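User: For documentation purposes, I need each entry recorded in a consistent format: the amino acid sequence on its own, followed directly by the corresponding structure tokens. There are two entries in this batch. Please keep commentary to a minimum and don't merge the entries.

Assistant: Recorded as requested. Entry 1:
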Amino acid sequence: MPMRRVPLSIGLLLVLPLGVLAAAATVTAPAPPAAPRSFAKQEAPRRTDQPGSVLETNLLVTWYGNPWSGRMGILGRLDASALAEGLKKQAAGYAAVTNKQIMPAYELVAIIAQPQPGRDGRYRRRESRQVIDRMLQAARAAGFKLILDVQTGRSTVLDELSYLAPYLQQPDVYLALDPEFSMGSDGVPGRRIGTMRADEVNDAIAVLECVQDRYQLPPKVLIVHQFTTGMLPDKEKIWSSAALDIVLSADGFGSPALKRHTYSMVLRQHSLAFSGFKLFYIQDTDLLQPSQVLALTPPPAVVIYQ
């Protein structure tokens, strides 16, 4: 598959060895369990033994949030040991009702939309590398994946992926985009629902394809969240990818009937390669059980709990 074009500044970040990036940030990202290739190697041959898809044979079950805020999700409501055991228990509920392998993950909101502009006027906060490192280490200790969720505020996807570049080089780190908090040049997070154009999603696809090819990584997952049709107004222009599993996740809390309607609505507008479904432990009424979630049409390949 031909390589997508990636802006030079992002391309340079992605091809620099991880140690250089980490040293520049005064933090060393934790090493993965087994490095796929030497990051310093300039012309590594393309691997031919990688599986073509994560989600064809795995069901990704994730817990969402940020450790600084219980309001943002379950990741901020439990400590480390309870977090890992709780997600394992939730994942086991799906193992009982599907033949797929269950792949648990933490979905960490790593770029957090803010109601105030901040020093640079971008209306977002970048989570510290220390916190991201800690979550990655905790995920690895439990045998989980880590998903980095991006709420851009008035920033851009490319700008935020430049900050997350050292982590995207890791084989067990995936990416999620949250258009609800994509505010363009004049919006304020929380005052209205944001909008993300296909070009920004395609920027993320190009970056992930580039980093996978450069470091000979196994396939990654990209999740795009949605709960209104206006959040992704030109969704049909989002690229497909032979290298990535691209997921459209239906968000929004409420009754089972409302959640089923939202799921059908966002997929009917335009579906992507895989679908996802988000549940809310506190805000949902009559929380759907795993068997009910997997009875949706089509069955989701990603299930997220907030």
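Entry 2:
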Amino acid sequence: MKRRVSLKYFWAIALLLTVFPVHAQANRTQGDAGLNEGLSEPKSTSVSDEYTAFLKLLRSKDTAAQRKFLAQWSGIGQQDPEFYVCYANYYLNLANKEVIQMSTNPPQNGKESYSIQDSVGNTVGYMYSAPSMDEELSAKSRYWLNQGIARFPRRLDLLFGKVHLFGLMRQHDSFGTTILQAIEKSVDNDFQWQWSKGIELQDGKQFLFSTCQDYIAKLFYSDDSLGLIWIEPISLALLEIDPKNVPCISNLAVSNMMLKRWSEAIPYLEKAYALDSQDDIVLANLGYSHFQLQNKSQAQKYYKLLKKSKDAQNRELADEMLKLAKKLK
């Protein structure tokens, strides 16, 4: 389902998310944990020779050799957490396919496509490639992740690997509930987590919040509105841990803004503003919410504050929105 928003609203949306600027020390790519991006050449951490050998096979894309190697490894690899990571990645790569899709609408984000024309030259459709996940192979990837989690419960990369897998499959309920499980387990184990290759996370709490914020960003920018319903419970669960966390409070505001519930968004934004009056995202969203409610003076107040931003794009946004707010009655 596609959401239609005006250019001005989209510009404001671009400022909506606050993502922690620093991640924990473990090497990863924005929350796509445990699968694909979690695999890298071992550095200072001790890992098995089998793990290193599998990485080479994975890069070779020789799936027959990978399957044979994993079968041999299974006899001795049950006590190696990377064994489960590798098996999950093997099935994930098999499950991830490209299919040809036809639609009356062009693909998003300027993706290359072929137009389909009728007999008089009018464009009646588009044909393009689209990612698709094989359910049976995805289930096998999930099986190995579950096996690894059961045997090595402190390995957060395996748990977030499941989140990544559910995201690829667009299974929003499983995506959201697995994040909530990670938050609950974090409280239970006092944020004492390990990451890929057994790295001990030095600040498990920051890492959890940072990764969850990455996942929330994916829900915001998804073209499926069903994902939006998980932003609130995830943010509320994080706020139980840190009630003054401005990004999480902003998430609650923006989830209301996405549904054009401007009056419901403002109390959350005011709370975030009271905690951090210099946050450009909060200022932009306060200004925009009041603008939508025709609250001229309040909209001008927050956009004037945004004009003091150190970011040139934010100052430009403030200037344009002040011109529009001036026209309000």
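Summary note for entry 2:
Confidence is low (pLDDT under 50) at residues 1-33, 40-44.
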